Amino acid sequence: MTTDIKHHLIESGLTASTFARTLGVHRSTLYRYLSGETQPPARVLLAAEELAQRGREQRRARLAELDQALKAPDTEFRVGEGESE
Q1: Is residue 40 left, alpha or beta, with left meaning phi > 0 and alpha meaning psi from -120 to 50?
Q2: What is the pLDDT along the chain (85 residues), one digit of tens a residue?
Q3: Torsion angle, CA of 75/77/82/85, rounded to 10 degrees?
Q4: What kind of architecture, by CATH, is found in domain 2-71?
Q5: 6: closest CA among 59, 54, 51?
Q6: Does residue 48 contact residue 80 with C-beta atoms inside 8 Å?
């Protein structure tokens, strides 16, 4: 179970604080889930799974955008907001 919540956190692409807030739990509660001290309830696991799925979908969409930009012959590639050149 601990592995699941950790995997979902990583897959979501969110910070632990944002992940916890979105799940509706305190950050310290999330850390107890991650350490195995406490088992997350089913509703938290389901919500964590949804956040992970959303993160995967966003990465796929971004990769598709980048792929299209690289394949376009006369398109100038622009670095997105928050990225460095």
Answers
A1: beta
A2: 557 999 999 999 999 999 999 999 999 999 999 999 999 999 999 999 999 999 999 999 999 988 888 887 765 656 665 555 4
A3: -160
A4: Orthogonal Bundle (1.10)
A5: 51
A6: no
